[in-house]
Known about the structure:
Layout: H1 3-6, H2 20-31, H3 37-40, H4 43-46, E1 51-60, E2 66-77, E3 83-90, H5 95-111, E4 118-124, H6 132-146, E5 155-159, H7 165-179, H8 200-218, E6 227-231, H9 235-246, E7 250-256, E8 259-262, H10 269-279, E9 289-291, E10 303-306, E11 325-327, H11 336-344, E12 348-350, H12 352-355, H13 358-372, H14 378-403, H15 407-426
Parallel strand pairs: 3-4, 3-5, 6-7, 6-10, 10-11, 11-12
Antiparallel strand pairs: 1-2, 2-4, 7-8, 8-9
Helix pairs in contact: 2-5, 2-15, 5-15, 6-7, 8-9, 8-13, 8-14, 13-14, 14-15
The protein binds nicotinamide-adenine-dinucleotide.
Nicotinamide-adenine-dinucleotide binds near residues 232, 236 and 309.
Amino acid sequence: xxxxxxxxxxxxxxxxxxxxxxxxxxxxxxxxxxxxxxxxxxxxxxxxxxxxxxxxxxxxxxxxxxxxxxxxxxxxxxxxxxxxxxxxxxxxxxxxxxxxxxxxxxxxxxxxxxxxxxxxxxxxxxxxxxxxxxxxxxxxxxxxxxxxxxxxxxxxxxxxxxxxxxxxxxxxxxxxxxxxxxxxxxxxxxxxxxxxxxxxxxxxxxxxxxxxxxxxxxxxxxxxxxxxxxxxxxxxxxxxxxxxxxxxxxxxxxxxxxxxxxxxxxxxxxxxxxxxxxxxxxxxxxxxxxxxxxxxxxxxxxxxxxxxxxxxxxxxxxxxxxxxxxxxxxxxxxxxxxxxxxxxxxxxxxxxxxxxxxxxxxxxxxxxxxxxxxxxxxxxxxxxxxxxxxxxxxxxxxxxxxxxxxxxxxxxxxxxxxxxxxxxxxxxxx
Length: 430
Ligand SMILES: NC(=O)c1ccc[n+]([C@@H]2O[C@H](COP(=O)([O-])OP(=O)(O)OC[C@H]3O[C@@H](n4cnc5c(N)ncnc54)[C@H](O)[C@@H]3O)[C@@H](O)[C@H]2O)c1
Protein backbone atom coordinates (compact mmCIF):
# COMPACT_ATOMS: atom_id res chain seq x y z
CA UNK A 1 0.00 0.00 0.00
CA UNK A 2 1.35 3.44 -0.87
CA UNK A 3 2.01 5.97 1.86
CA UNK A 4 -0.86 8.18 0.59
CA UNK A 5 -3.30 5.30 1.06
CA UNK A 6 -1.99 4.50 4.54
CA UNK A 7 -2.14 7.99 5.99
CA UNK A 8 -4.55 10.88 6.21
CA UNK A 9 -2.15 13.37 4.64
CA UNK A 10 -2.57 17.12 5.20
CA UNK A 11 -3.97 19.01 2.23
CA UNK A 12 -1.02 21.39 2.28
CA UNK A 13 1.53 18.73 1.20
CA UNK A 14 1.65 17.18 -2.26
CA UNK A 15 0.98 13.41 -1.86
CA UNK A 16 3.11 12.67 -4.94
CA UNK A 17 6.04 14.59 -3.50
CA UNK A 18 5.94 14.13 0.24
CA UNK A 19 9.64 14.77 0.81
CA UNK A 20 11.21 14.20 4.27
CA UNK A 21 7.79 14.10 5.96
CA UNK A 22 7.12 10.89 4.00
CA UNK A 23 10.31 9.36 5.42
CA UNK A 24 9.29 10.30 8.94
CA UNK A 25 5.83 8.73 8.45
CA UNK A 26 7.44 5.46 7.36
CA UNK A 27 9.60 5.49 10.49
CA UNK A 28 6.49 5.94 12.65
CA UNK A 29 4.82 3.04 10.82
CA UNK A 30 7.76 0.83 11.74
CA UNK A 31 7.45 1.59 15.45
CA UNK A 32 3.65 1.37 15.73
CA UNK A 33 3.44 -2.43 16.21
CA UNK A 34 5.79 -2.22 19.21
CA UNK A 35 3.79 0.34 21.20
CA UNK A 36 1.65 -0.71 24.17
CA UNK A 37 -2.05 -1.13 23.26
CA UNK A 38 -2.96 1.73 25.60
CA UNK A 39 -0.79 4.10 23.54
CA UNK A 40 -1.92 2.90 20.10
CA UNK A 41 -4.96 5.18 20.15
CA UNK A 42 -2.70 8.24 20.28
CA UNK A 43 -0.45 7.32 17.37
CA UNK A 44 -2.18 9.74 14.98
CA UNK A 45 -0.86 12.53 17.24
CA UNK A 46 2.62 11.77 15.94
CA UNK A 47 1.53 11.90 12.30
CA UNK A 48 0.57 15.57 12.20
CA UNK A 49 2.32 18.67 13.48
CA UNK A 50 0.58 20.53 16.29
CA UNK A 51 1.15 23.91 14.67
CA UNK A 52 2.79 25.14 11.44
CA UNK A 53 3.36 28.82 10.76
CA UNK A 54 4.29 30.09 7.28
CA UNK A 55 5.56 33.66 7.14
CA UNK A 56 6.58 36.18 4.50
CA UNK A 57 9.94 37.80 5.28
CA UNK A 58 10.42 41.01 3.28
CA UNK A 59 13.71 42.91 3.62
CA UNK A 60 15.47 45.86 2.04
CA UNK A 61 18.50 44.67 0.10
CA UNK A 62 21.62 46.84 0.18
CA UNK A 63 20.84 48.01 -3.37
CA UNK A 64 17.55 49.56 -2.20
CA UNK A 65 15.19 46.94 -3.65
CA UNK A 66 12.85 44.81 -1.55
CA UNK A 67 13.11 41.02 -1.57
CA UNK A 68 10.72 38.48 -0.03
CA UNK A 69 11.71 35.17 1.55
CA UNK A 70 9.50 32.29 2.67
CA UNK A 71 9.88 31.28 6.33
CA UNK A 72 8.46 28.51 8.50
CA UNK A 73 8.24 27.55 12.16
CA UNK A 74 6.67 24.18 12.95
CA UNK A 75 5.86 22.82 16.41
CA UNK A 76 5.36 19.10 16.02
CA UNK A 77 4.52 18.03 19.55
CA UNK A 78 4.57 19.75 22.93
CA UNK A 79 3.18 17.03 25.20
CA UNK A 80 6.44 16.79 27.19
CA UNK A 81 7.38 20.47 27.29
CA UNK A 82 8.01 23.53 25.10
CA UNK A 83 8.93 23.12 21.46
CA UNK A 84 12.68 22.95 20.85
CA UNK A 85 14.60 22.79 17.61
CA UNK A 86 16.96 24.59 15.29
CA UNK A 87 16.58 27.22 12.61
CA UNK A 88 17.91 26.50 9.13
CA UNK A 89 18.74 28.94 6.33
CA UNK A 90 18.86 27.06 3.03
CA UNK A 91 17.58 27.69 -0.47
CA UNK A 92 15.91 24.25 -0.62
CA UNK A 93 13.99 24.42 2.69
CA UNK A 94 10.37 23.23 2.31
CA UNK A 95 7.43 22.90 4.67
CA UNK A 96 7.71 19.10 4.41
CA UNK A 97 11.36 19.30 5.47
CA UNK A 98 10.69 21.58 8.43
CA UNK A 99 7.78 19.35 9.51
CA UNK A 100 10.01 16.26 9.44
CA UNK A 101 12.85 18.04 11.24
CA UNK A 102 10.39 19.22 13.92
CA UNK A 103 9.08 15.67 14.33
CA UNK A 104 12.60 14.25 14.61
CA UNK A 105 13.21 16.82 17.38
CA UNK A 106 10.17 15.46 19.29
CA UNK A 107 11.62 11.95 18.98
CA UNK A 108 15.17 13.06 19.84
CA UNK A 109 14.19 15.07 22.91
CA UNK A 110 12.18 12.14 24.21
CA UNK A 111 14.90 9.60 23.33
CA UNK A 112 17.47 11.40 25.49
CA UNK A 113 14.76 12.41 27.98
CA UNK A 114 15.13 16.19 27.99
CA UNK A 115 11.83 17.90 28.92
CA UNK A 116 10.98 19.34 25.52
CA UNK A 117 8.65 18.78 22.62
CA UNK A 118 9.86 19.12 19.04
CA UNK A 119 9.98 22.17 16.77
CA UNK A 120 12.01 23.49 13.84
CA UNK A 121 12.29 26.59 11.71
CA UNK A 122 13.58 27.42 8.27
CA UNK A 123 13.92 30.21 5.74
CA UNK A 124 14.22 29.53 2.02
CA UNK A 125 17.35 31.52 1.36
CA UNK A 126 20.93 30.97 0.31
CA UNK A 127 22.61 33.08 3.02
CA UNK A 128 25.84 33.17 1.00
CA UNK A 129 24.04 35.50 -1.43
CA UNK A 130 23.30 38.08 1.33
CA UNK A 131 25.58 40.67 2.89
CA UNK A 132 25.98 40.56 6.67
CA UNK A 133 23.56 43.45 7.15
CA UNK A 134 20.99 41.84 4.82
CA UNK A 135 21.34 38.62 6.81
CA UNK A 136 20.75 40.53 10.03
CA UNK A 137 17.64 42.26 8.65
CA UNK A 138 16.28 38.94 7.41
CA UNK A 139 16.91 37.21 10.74
CA UNK A 140 15.27 40.05 12.69
CA UNK A 141 12.21 40.23 10.41
CA UNK A 142 11.78 36.44 10.50
CA UNK A 143 12.03 36.50 14.32
CA UNK A 144 9.38 39.24 14.51
CA UNK A 145 7.09 37.23 12.24
CA UNK A 146 7.33 34.06 14.38
CA UNK A 147 7.34 36.09 17.62
CA UNK A 148 3.75 35.03 18.32
CA UNK A 149 4.68 31.39 18.85
CA UNK A 150 8.24 31.39 20.26
CA UNK A 151 9.33 32.12 23.83
CA UNK A 152 11.36 30.56 26.65
CA UNK A 153 8.30 28.65 27.85
CA UNK A 154 6.76 27.85 24.47
CA UNK A 155 9.33 27.28 21.72
CA UNK A 156 13.10 27.80 21.83
CA UNK A 157 15.07 27.96 18.52
CA UNK A 158 18.78 27.07 18.20
CA UNK A 159 21.40 26.95 15.40
CA UNK A 160 21.15 24.49 12.52
CA UNK A 161 22.46 24.49 8.95
CA UNK A 162 23.86 27.95 8.02
CA UNK A 163 22.87 29.58 11.31
CA UNK A 164 25.23 30.27 14.18
CA UNK A 165 25.80 32.14 17.45
CA UNK A 166 25.50 35.53 15.74
CA UNK A 167 22.10 34.64 14.26
CA UNK A 168 20.95 33.49 17.72
CA UNK A 169 22.16 36.79 19.24
CA UNK A 170 20.07 38.78 16.68
CA UNK A 171 17.04 36.59 17.39
CA UNK A 172 17.41 37.03 21.14
CA UNK A 173 17.78 40.79 20.75
CA UNK A 174 14.75 41.11 18.44
CA UNK A 175 12.53 39.04 20.72
CA UNK A 176 13.73 41.00 23.78
CA UNK A 177 13.13 44.37 22.08
CA UNK A 178 9.52 43.39 21.35
CA UNK A 179 9.12 42.20 24.94
CA UNK A 180 10.69 45.23 26.62
CA UNK A 181 13.37 43.38 28.56
CA UNK A 182 16.15 40.86 27.90
CA UNK A 183 14.96 37.29 27.55
CA UNK A 184 18.05 35.16 27.13
CA UNK A 185 16.19 31.83 27.35
CA UNK A 186 14.26 32.37 24.09
CA UNK A 187 17.07 30.81 22.02
CA UNK A 188 20.02 28.53 22.76
CA UNK A 189 23.37 28.32 21.03
CA UNK A 190 23.96 31.99 21.87
CA UNK A 191 27.39 33.55 22.33
CA UNK A 192 28.75 32.81 25.83
CA UNK A 193 28.87 36.57 26.45
CA UNK A 194 25.06 36.69 26.08
CA UNK A 195 24.00 33.79 28.28
CA UNK A 196 25.23 31.02 25.99
CA UNK A 197 26.70 27.88 27.45
CA UNK A 198 30.29 26.75 27.41
CA UNK A 199 30.58 23.61 25.31
CA UNK A 200 27.43 24.27 23.22
CA UNK A 201 29.25 24.92 19.95
CA UNK A 202 31.04 21.57 20.09
CA UNK A 203 28.21 19.64 21.81
CA UNK A 204 26.65 17.94 18.77
CA UNK A 205 29.97 16.74 17.35
CA UNK A 206 31.09 15.68 20.80
CA UNK A 207 27.88 13.69 21.28
CA UNK A 208 28.41 12.01 17.89
CA UNK A 209 31.87 10.92 19.03
CA UNK A 210 30.72 9.69 22.46
CA UNK A 211 27.90 7.65 20.90
CA UNK A 212 30.21 6.29 18.19
CA UNK A 213 32.59 5.01 20.90
CA UNK A 214 29.70 3.38 22.79
CA UNK A 215 28.40 1.69 19.64
CA UNK A 216 31.90 0.55 18.67
CA UNK A 217 32.35 -1.08 22.06
CA UNK A 218 29.18 -3.13 21.54
CA UNK A 219 30.42 -4.66 18.29
CA UNK A 220 34.14 -4.75 19.10
CA UNK A 221 35.37 -2.08 16.73
CA UNK A 222 38.45 -0.15 17.87
CA UNK A 223 38.35 3.65 17.53
CA UNK A 224 42.13 3.86 17.68
CA UNK A 225 43.43 3.28 14.18
CA UNK A 226 39.93 3.31 12.67
CA UNK A 227 39.31 5.00 9.30
CA UNK A 228 36.66 7.72 9.22
CA UNK A 229 34.64 9.28 6.38
CA UNK A 230 32.74 12.50 7.09
CA UNK A 231 30.14 14.17 4.87
CA UNK A 232 29.69 17.82 5.84
CA UNK A 233 32.54 19.71 7.48
CA UNK A 234 30.55 22.37 9.34
CA UNK A 235 29.87 22.61 13.04
CA UNK A 236 28.94 18.94 13.53
CA UNK A 237 31.21 17.20 11.02
CA UNK A 238 34.39 19.11 11.80
CA UNK A 239 34.04 18.73 15.58
CA UNK A 240 33.30 15.00 15.34
CA UNK A 241 36.24 14.56 12.94
CA UNK A 242 38.61 16.39 15.30
CA UNK A 243 37.55 14.28 18.31
CA UNK A 244 37.96 11.04 16.33
CA UNK A 245 41.45 12.08 15.29
CA UNK A 246 42.30 13.03 18.89
CA UNK A 247 41.06 9.54 19.82
CA UNK A 248 43.59 7.96 17.45
CA UNK A 249 41.42 7.50 14.34
CA UNK A 250 42.35 8.50 10.79
CA UNK A 251 40.16 10.88 8.77
CA UNK A 252 40.47 9.44 5.26
CA UNK A 253 37.84 11.38 3.33
CA UNK A 254 35.63 14.45 3.69
CA UNK A 255 32.87 15.69 1.40
CA UNK A 256 31.07 19.01 1.52
CA UNK A 257 29.04 21.15 -0.89
CA UNK A 258 32.24 22.13 -2.74
CA UNK A 259 33.62 18.64 -3.39
CA UNK A 260 35.36 15.58 -1.93
CA UNK A 261 38.93 15.18 -0.70
CA UNK A 262 40.72 11.97 0.26
CA UNK A 263 43.99 11.02 1.90
CA UNK A 264 44.30 7.37 2.91
CA UNK A 265 47.21 8.32 5.17
CA UNK A 266 44.92 10.69 7.08
CA UNK A 267 43.75 14.27 6.44
CA UNK A 268 45.14 16.94 8.78
CA UNK A 269 41.98 18.17 10.56
CA UNK A 270 43.47 21.44 11.78
CA UNK A 271 44.82 22.37 8.35
CA UNK A 272 41.54 21.33 6.69
CA UNK A 273 39.51 23.42 9.16
CA UNK A 274 41.66 26.45 8.39
CA UNK A 275 41.29 25.84 4.64
CA UNK A 276 37.48 25.67 5.01
CA UNK A 277 37.46 28.85 7.08
CA UNK A 278 39.58 30.66 4.48
CA UNK A 279 37.93 29.37 1.29
CA UNK A 280 34.41 28.27 2.30
CA UNK A 281 34.82 24.56 1.55
CA UNK A 282 37.11 21.51 1.39
CA UNK A 283 37.69 21.80 -2.35
CA UNK A 284 41.25 22.73 -3.27
CA UNK A 285 42.75 21.43 0.00
CA UNK A 286 46.39 20.69 -0.68
CA UNK A 287 46.68 17.94 1.96
CA UNK A 288 44.50 15.49 0.02
CA UNK A 289 43.52 14.49 -3.49
CA UNK A 290 40.26 15.55 -5.09
CA UNK A 291 38.03 12.61 -5.99
CA UNK A 292 34.61 12.42 -7.72
CA UNK A 293 31.76 12.98 -5.25
CA UNK A 294 30.16 9.62 -6.08
CA UNK A 295 33.34 7.75 -5.00
CA UNK A 296 33.02 9.05 -1.43
CA UNK A 297 30.50 6.34 -0.52
CA UNK A 298 32.59 3.35 -1.55
CA UNK A 299 35.77 4.21 0.36
CA UNK A 300 36.45 1.51 2.94
CA UNK A 301 36.19 2.76 6.53
CA UNK A 302 35.18 1.69 10.01
CA UNK A 303 32.98 4.78 10.64
CA UNK A 304 30.92 6.81 8.17
CA UNK A 305 29.51 10.06 9.53
CA UNK A 306 26.91 11.86 7.45
CA UNK A 307 26.87 15.40 8.90
CA UNK A 308 25.38 17.51 6.08
CA UNK A 309 21.75 17.26 4.94
CA UNK A 310 18.93 14.72 4.90
CA UNK A 311 18.34 12.08 2.23
CA UNK A 312 22.04 11.44 1.47
CA UNK A 313 22.18 7.64 1.97
CA UNK A 314 19.69 6.21 -0.50
CA UNK A 315 18.98 2.89 -2.21
CA UNK A 316 21.37 4.05 -4.94
CA UNK A 317 24.54 4.51 -2.88
CA UNK A 318 23.79 2.28 0.15
CA UNK A 319 24.83 -0.95 -1.67
CA UNK A 320 28.29 0.58 -2.29
CA UNK A 321 28.94 1.60 1.32
CA UNK A 322 31.82 -0.29 2.91
CA UNK A 323 31.90 0.67 6.56
CA UNK A 324 31.05 -0.93 9.88
CA UNK A 325 29.15 1.82 11.66
CA UNK A 326 27.15 4.74 10.28
CA UNK A 327 26.77 7.44 12.94
CA UNK A 328 24.18 10.00 11.86
CA UNK A 329 25.43 13.47 12.72
CA UNK A 330 22.93 15.01 10.27
CA UNK A 331 19.19 14.85 10.72
CA UNK A 332 17.47 12.33 8.47
CA UNK A 333 20.45 11.42 6.25
CA UNK A 334 19.30 7.83 5.61
CA UNK A 335 16.17 6.87 3.69
CA UNK A 336 14.17 3.83 4.94
CA UNK A 337 15.22 1.88 1.80
CA UNK A 338 18.90 2.59 2.53
CA UNK A 339 18.33 1.64 6.18
CA UNK A 340 17.16 -1.82 5.06
CA UNK A 341 20.09 -2.29 2.66
CA UNK A 342 22.66 -1.31 5.30
CA UNK A 343 21.06 -3.66 7.82
CA UNK A 344 21.12 -6.55 5.31
CA UNK A 345 24.80 -5.81 4.68
CA UNK A 346 25.59 -6.03 8.39
CA UNK A 347 26.30 -2.29 8.80
CA UNK A 348 25.23 -0.84 12.14
CA UNK A 349 23.35 2.47 11.85
CA UNK A 350 23.21 4.71 14.91
CA UNK A 351 20.29 7.04 14.20
CA UNK A 352 20.28 10.83 14.32
CA UNK A 353 17.73 10.94 17.14
CA UNK A 354 20.38 9.51 19.47
CA UNK A 355 23.70 10.22 17.74
CA UNK A 356 23.27 13.97 17.26
CA UNK A 357 21.32 14.69 20.46
CA UNK A 358 24.38 16.25 22.14
CA UNK A 359 23.46 19.68 20.76
CA UNK A 360 19.98 19.76 22.19
CA UNK A 361 21.24 18.28 25.46
CA UNK A 362 23.64 21.18 26.00
CA UNK A 363 20.93 23.55 24.72
CA UNK A 364 18.85 22.21 27.59
CA UNK A 365 21.73 22.94 29.98
CA UNK A 366 21.98 26.47 28.50
CA UNK A 367 18.25 27.08 29.01
CA UNK A 368 18.45 25.85 32.62
CA UNK A 369 21.49 28.09 33.24
CA UNK A 370 19.68 31.10 31.72
CA UNK A 371 16.63 30.59 33.93
CA UNK A 372 18.74 30.38 37.07
CA UNK A 373 21.37 32.94 35.90
CA UNK A 374 23.94 30.54 37.27
CA UNK A 375 26.56 29.22 34.86
CA UNK A 376 28.47 25.96 34.98
CA UNK A 377 32.06 25.14 34.06
CA UNK A 378 32.86 23.48 30.74
CA UNK A 379 34.06 20.34 32.54
CA UNK A 380 30.78 20.08 34.37
CA UNK A 381 28.84 20.49 31.13
CA UNK A 382 30.87 17.89 29.24
CA UNK A 383 30.60 15.45 32.12
CA UNK A 384 26.82 15.80 32.26
CA UNK A 385 26.58 15.64 28.46
CA UNK A 386 28.60 12.42 28.30
CA UNK A 387 26.43 10.88 31.00
CA UNK A 388 23.12 11.79 29.30
CA UNK A 389 24.36 10.46 25.95
CA UNK A 390 25.72 7.20 27.37
CA UNK A 391 22.57 6.52 29.37
CA UNK A 392 20.34 7.25 26.37
CA UNK A 393 22.41 4.97 24.16
CA UNK A 394 22.43 2.14 26.73
CA UNK A 395 18.62 2.26 27.07
CA UNK A 396 18.04 2.29 23.32
CA UNK A 397 20.64 -0.41 22.67
CA UNK A 398 18.99 -2.69 25.23
CA UNK A 399 15.59 -2.31 23.53
CA UNK A 400 17.16 -3.02 20.12
CA UNK A 401 18.67 -6.25 21.49
CA UNK A 402 15.55 -7.37 23.36
CA UNK A 403 13.16 -6.72 20.49
CA UNK A 404 15.64 -7.59 17.73
CA UNK A 405 15.00 -4.33 15.90
CA UNK A 406 17.27 -1.68 14.40
CA UNK A 407 18.69 0.94 16.74
CA UNK A 408 16.49 3.51 14.95
CA UNK A 409 13.30 1.57 15.61
CA UNK A 410 14.44 1.01 19.21
CA UNK A 411 15.01 4.76 19.66
CA UNK A 412 11.54 5.42 18.21
CA UNK A 413 10.03 2.82 20.60
CA UNK A 414 11.64 4.51 23.63
CA UNK A 415 10.77 8.03 22.45
CA UNK A 416 7.23 7.42 21.18
CA UNK A 417 6.40 5.58 24.39
CA UNK A 418 7.50 8.63 26.41
CA UNK A 419 5.64 11.11 24.18
CA UNK A 420 2.41 9.13 24.01
CA UNK A 421 2.47 8.30 27.73
CA UNK A 422 2.60 12.06 28.38
CA UNK A 423 -0.26 12.54 25.92
CA UNK A 424 -2.26 9.78 27.59
CA UNK A 425 -1.69 11.16 31.10
CA UNK A 426 -2.57 14.73 30.10
CA UNK A 427 -5.71 13.71 28.21
CA UNK A 428 -7.32 15.83 25.53
CA UNK A 429 -8.25 19.48 26.04
CA UNK A 430 -11.06 20.50 26.39
N1 LIG B 1 24.42 22.40 14.79
C1 LIG B 1 23.86 21.56 15.62
O1 LIG B 1 23.95 21.71 16.84
C2 LIG B 1 23.10 20.36 15.11
C3 LIG B 1 22.45 19.56 16.05
C4 LIG B 1 21.82 18.40 15.62
C5 LIG B 1 21.83 18.07 14.28
N2 LIG B 1 22.43 18.89 13.37
C6 LIG B 1 22.39 18.49 11.97
O2 LIG B 1 23.71 18.30 11.49
C7 LIG B 1 23.77 18.62 10.09
C8 LIG B 1 24.85 19.65 9.86
O3 LIG B 1 24.57 20.79 10.65
P1 LIG B 1 25.69 21.88 11.00
O4 LIG B 1 25.16 22.67 12.14
O5 LIG B 1 27.03 21.22 11.08
O6 LIG B 1 25.60 22.79 9.70
P2 LIG B 1 26.77 23.68 9.04
O7 LIG B 1 26.06 24.72 8.25
O8 LIG B 1 27.76 24.12 10.05
O9 LIG B 1 27.50 22.65 8.05
C9 LIG B 1 26.83 22.02 7.00
C10 LIG B 1 27.84 21.24 6.19
O10 LIG B 1 27.15 20.47 5.19
C11 LIG B 1 27.80 20.64 3.95
N3 LIG B 1 26.87 20.42 2.83
C12 LIG B 1 25.80 21.18 2.49
N4 LIG B 1 25.23 20.68 1.38
C13 LIG B 1 25.95 19.57 1.04
C14 LIG B 1 25.85 18.61 -0.01
N5 LIG B 1 24.89 18.71 -0.93
N6 LIG B 1 26.76 17.62 -0.05
C15 LIG B 1 27.74 17.54 0.87
N7 LIG B 1 27.87 18.40 1.89
C16 LIG B 1 26.98 19.41 1.96
C17 LIG B 1 28.31 22.07 3.98
O11 LIG B 1 29.33 22.26 3.03
C18 LIG B 1 28.82 22.16 5.43
O12 LIG B 1 30.12 21.60 5.51
C19 LIG B 1 22.35 19.05 9.72
O13 LIG B 1 21.62 17.93 9.26
C20 LIG B 1 21.77 19.51 11.05
O14 LIG B 1 20.36 19.44 11.06
C21 LIG B 1 23.07 20.03 13.76
